[in-house]
Amino acid sequence: MSNTLVRRPQRRKALEEADMFAGSQLCLARKSRKMSQERLGEHLSVSFQQVQKYEKGKNRMTPGILAAAADVLGVSPAFFFKNTDGQSAEPTVETLQLATLMASKDALELNALFARIDDPKLRHHIIGCMRQVVEAFAPRLDRSNGFQGKIESGLPFRNA
């Protein structure tokens, strides 16, 4: 009988998928913080090439690297793992940014006022007007008020 370890293809595939998911989450969190791979690598004491390999799922992150990355990027370690329905075990950075925005006094007032409008056509026109305002002023908002450069779903998000 041989002492060689026989790897099961299904298990290896699951591990590779988990590495790819963790890497894509690392990339998502890093980009949302507008951090370069080089800068993240400095925080993790690895090269930017190693960060690239982590993000592509080519190299597996150790528990220590995962914990350090979570700390640097402001997410919990669970952010890097899927739950049973295939989603991140933690909310995405974009979800957290949206939740922060929606908790602001202005957003709450805007939503309360919008909720009082019963006419669907009027609601549709108001949304169209808001899109035009955002598109017209997004470059100015981006530079002067700390909004991130990309408008997601028509909503500018403030830096967390």
Automatic annotation (TrEMBL):
Q: Which GO terms describe its molecular function?
A: DNA binding
Which part of the chain is the HTH cro/C1-type domain? 29-80
Q: Which InterPro entries match?
A: Cro/C1-type_HTH (IPR001387), Lambda_DNA-bd_dom_sf (IPR010982)
Q: Name one Pfam family in it.
A: HTH_3
PROSITE patterns in the cross-refs = HTH_CROC1
Q: What is this protein called?
A: Transcriptional regulator with XRE-family HTH domain
Q: What species was this sequence derived from?
A: Allorhizobium taibaishanense
Organism lineage string = Bacteria, Pseudomonadati, Pseudomonadota, Alphaproteobacteria, Hyphomicrobiales
